[in-house]
Each structure stands twice: as C-alpha cells, then as structure tokens.
C-alpha cells in the first residue's frame, strides 16, 4: 500500500486548496459527515469524488482558517483533528478518520464536527 502524503493533506486543508484536497480521494470514495444537522441516525453521505469536490470547494471558499493537528496513520487508516475559525470569529472543531487504499487514495472519510454558532 502506498502511504498518503500527510504533508500534502495538511497543506491542502490549511491552504483551502479544494482541488488538491479532493484529488486525494479515490473516484468512488465516500465522505460521511456527522454534526448537529446530520445526526448519527441521518448522516450526510457524499458519494464519489465529484460530490466530495463540490463539498470541499464550498468549505474552502468561505475564508475559514484551518489548523490540522494530532495526525496519526497506520495500516490503511489516518486520523486527525482540525480547528477552524470563520472570519467573524466562530470556531469549528472536527475529528476525522480516513481509510486509504493500496494506491494511497482516500476511500472513506468520517468527519464529526461541532461549531460555536450557526456560521455553517
């Protein structure tokens, strides 16, 4: 299995680089989001690189600052935490777990997030 380049992932997230970020996903990848709008019984499931790219283009276009921390990887998995801040000061915390295939592409990401207010 090829290892996903953690530096590239971190730079893409922190640099609001939606194109690079979505390019790290396999064509048939799935992104699951759990938050107050999408509870565990009804998560938001985005299937396919195209839908994931649309999501990250929206997120990266909001002027939010992102800081990735606590990255760990091993045996086809990667996890990290992310602290974000909107221009108005609202903060978001995210914890993510990713599955990576033998080619080093993300096949599945599960993201759990919480935010200060209704900045989403």
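Q: What amino acid sequence fits the structure above?
A:
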């Amino acid at each position: 299995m090829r290892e996903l380049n953690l530096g590239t992932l971190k730079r893409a997230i922190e640099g609001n680089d939606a194109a690079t970020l979505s390019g790290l996903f396999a064509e048939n990848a799935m992104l699951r989001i759990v938050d107050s709008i999408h509870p565990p019984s009804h998560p938001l499931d985005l299937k396919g690189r195209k839908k994931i790219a649309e999501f990250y283009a929206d997120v990266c276009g909001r002027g939010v600052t992102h800081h990735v921390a606590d990255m760990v990887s091993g045996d086809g998995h990667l996890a990290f935490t992310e602290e974000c801040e909107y221009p108005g000061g609202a903060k978001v915390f995210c914890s993510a777990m990713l599955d990576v295939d033998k080619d080093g592409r993300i096949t599945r990401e599960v993201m759990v997030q919480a935010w200060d207010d209704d900045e989403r």
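Q: And what stands out in the fold?
A: The chain is about 20% helix and 45% strand.
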